[in-house]
Protein 1
Amino acid sequence: MTFAVHGLPVARGIAIGRAVLVVSSRIDVAHYFIKPEEIETEIDRVRTARNAVADELTKLQASVAQMGPNDAPHELAALLEVHQMLLQDDVLSGGVKHWISERLYNAEWALTTQLEIIARQFDEMEDPYLRERKADLEQVVERMLHRMKGTAAVLAPSPPRRKRAAAAHDDEDDDPTAGDGFDVPLVLIAHDLSPADMLQFKKSVFAGFVTDVGGRTSHTAIVARSMDIPAIVGARSASQLVRQDDWVIIDGEAGVMIVDPSPIILAEYGFKQRQGDLERGRLARLRHKPAVTLDGQRVDLLANIEMPEDTAGAVKAGAVGVGLFRSEFLFMGRENSARQTRLPDEEEQYQAYKRAVEGMQGMPVTIRTIDVGADKPLDGKSGSKQEHLNPALGLRAIRWSLADPAMFLTQLRAILRAAAHGEIHLLIPMLAHASEIRQTLSLIDFARAELDNRGAVYGPVKLGAMIEIPAAALTLKTFLKHFDFLSIGTNDLIQYTLAIDRADEAVAHLYDPAHPAVLKLVADTITECRRQGKGVSVCGEMAGDVAFTRLLLGLGLRSFSMHPSRILAVKQEVLRADTGKLEPWARGVLDADDPAAALAG
Ligand code: PEP
Ligand code: MG
């Protein structure tokens, strides 16, 4: 039966494919694709774990049998018997084999996927006794997952595209792409994904994705946008409503997912998808055109990146530099099997920054110092919300760096050394206090002194601060005394001005970039920087949103940093703009009671 699930649009476009559910389990499991030649090994890992758990249960059963009725109630023996039965169940083992051999899921992913399928069947049972057996099944699977720990193969860095499966339980007849022999696109559906998970998925093959939670500018959404695939966040119970392998359509523009679409709906969205491809083709022609307005104003369109390798996409999209390298992504998802996180040392960071500089082929690279905390925990778990009541207001970004000077100095030395290879702008996130500015600057001096002592080669950097806390936007004089340029982080500026958690879908409707207070802080920052002859750019999501291009140009902005996939669309707006005409209009928007309406009009 066809039905629709609504969420928040993140990245435009249409994706049509099979749902891949990434289920959250009480045990953290890795999700990755294996190579076809690894199928037998993965099936074997499951078999070995099952046999080990069966032995464990048999031993327990034997010791229970030796106990008297007072020490071991009769129910315990019965329960162990149930666990043995569940463990040997063909539906469990058959399903796991299916996901491994037909979908190339790693063993843990296959096991949790099949667990979810059977668990849902238990949920639907009338008999309360049978319904409660779901918990037993979960325990059995958890025992197996524990057994499998440490036996995993190395993560496959670039998973193979899955061939259309001649799947055992597949309804091939309803396969809308059947017959032409190409791969079936896969669409990822999850309750939540951390930015570190997203990095892992970035290397993979998904054609789109949907999560139950998250706001439009949550870091998960930002990484998703950088993958340039249709995506929806905040779809609430999507992961409960969709079943593994369902056909789904994601309309990233409207923020709608259609499950089990009829042939008519499929045809309609197939048409829309082709229109989108044509539009992208048209925009691609602008790649080599300089971004200059009708009245001759040059506009810098820069790229936001997460990894040095993203520079290739930035250059391809026609970026004239990197306006924001979110360096924290180098620090994420590095937990080893003993659950320890080893941060990248100076050499590793230096090599990464150098790669970014080289990747930009002489164009400037703005490296932001680490910004972890809030919805970007280091270890990839989004559990920090439970640990800290207000993570967004806690030890995040520069606060985190100043609390750990040794870690910060390591990063600063690596960035300064990389500056010997090309133009680097060093950008500091989340400053609010003059004392933080002083401490930061003296640590930068100290890092230089350390390199001098060592006789290491390093280069000059331009120093910049992010304006993303209202307190910073209201004390620009202090910032401009110390920094060469400012970069407005509208994602956080909106979050902190309007007191809206950017990652919380429950308040997403209040996340308003066109709020007069936000626009005033943005406008004042641009005006003051220009007055003092300092550089200013916007690197929040607003910079890549064409609904705001004309307004920002009218307010005097000439430097926009965004994910590469947005550059051509923004360039098209720039090419059509006349800043002489936009200036008075933009002032009118600022003064309007309802700027959003004035913007649209
Ligand atoms: C911002 O806050 O606008 C920004 C660019 O930084 P981040 O999204 O990484 O917090
Ligand atoms: Mg920010």
Protein 2
Amino acid sequence: GGGGGGGGGGKEFGGPLGAAAMVAGLPAVCVGLYATCSGGACAALAPPAVPFALPPAWVSLAGAGVWLSWLLAVLGLHLGLPGRNVRGVRLAGGGQLQYKMNALAVYGVALGSLFVLSFGLGALDIGWAADHFFELQTASIAFSLLLSLGLYLKSHAPGAVLAEHGNTGNALEDFFMGRELNPRIGRLDLKEFCELYPGLIGWAGLNLAMAYRQYTQLGRVTNSMVLVNVFQALYVADALWYEPAILSTMDITTDGFGFMLAFGDLTWVPITYTLQARYLVDHPQDLSPGYLAFVVALKVLGYAIFRGANGDKDKFRREPDHPRARRLKYMNTERGTKLIISGWWGLARHINYTGDWLMGLAWCLPCGITHVVPYFYAIYFACLLIHRDMRDNAACRLKYGRDWDKYCAHVPYRLVPYVY
Ligand code: NDP
């Protein structure tokens, strides 16, 4: 899902003041990451030296043009390629929406074309995106703001179904949280499209551009760069493979489409998640076989936990008679839904978050351990997941009452068995 996203009530983000702080602060973080880590300079772990470099150009017509062309190309592929129609969850008003889904096909064609045109034929210097990264970032921030403004205005059209939390009456808060639940243009669902297509695929595309720039500069691609590209490309492929699963997430069912998701999907993900590959262009690393094996093992472990836990819960809830679900021990609750207390879910109450985080750490480790900024993802994601675990724990205590305390006695740890 979207990086900045993960909704809930507007109040959880501090009301109008919090919304204002996020609208100004999130783009500022993107600028800050560039300022403290770009070119040859990057904030070091020790001694604590923090460089501050701003880009040669802040905005450019070329940057805006390339950014917009990417968006339109991905949109064209989504509309033009065949896809399957999937029905969303039942809406509060009783209706159900149809979604055209072909993210994996769009991903394959888009990334495959970039790869063939650059590495294969040498016909397109996609490394341009690495050289003009900041201009692309500015274009993306500007577009995210304009889109959110457009969405806010559109939400006032008659008949728009509004999100519960994005309808406080405070313009700033509603602009941030998102007022309309499922804004559409014809049959194109703007929120679902932005959640999975341009930003996630753009992330993998930008990583590839970084790899290509390293290739044109060094004459080869380092093993660390390959690792970051492969890890993250697989993560995107995995998310797109499970495209229908997005329909039951909070982002789709509950949150409106406003600045939080628009910025998260279109800017935060492709700009901040490409930091490791961007770092490796200026600081190439050749990893020793031992270090490489360790990083791969960590990634595999993280993936096994992440998929194992999420898959167990999905099977257990949707197909309780499946052999995979039947081997799990569970606890009955007064609310009627059962809670798993064995397997992955017996180790910690959000072991799925821990698996996700371990994968994130494995993305940062190929950058070596001299600089701190490439670890931004692991640090930010740890904060996000700890906060999300606390929110979910509070929500479950409300949903399950005393049963939740019984469950916590069975599974006492939140994220890390025997530690936390
Ligand atoms: P979960 O998939 O952990 O879902 C939590 C809900 O599951 C609870 O509210 C409860 O709901 C149910 N549940 C909790 N414990 C049990 C149990 N023991 N047995 C059965 N059901 C249980 O949360 P998320 O949707 O937050 O996360 C899903 C995945 O997405 C995670 O792997 C996470 O890492 C990832 N993620 C990634 C983000 C990113 O930016 N990359 C952001 C957010 C999440 P109920 O009982 O009502 O069904």
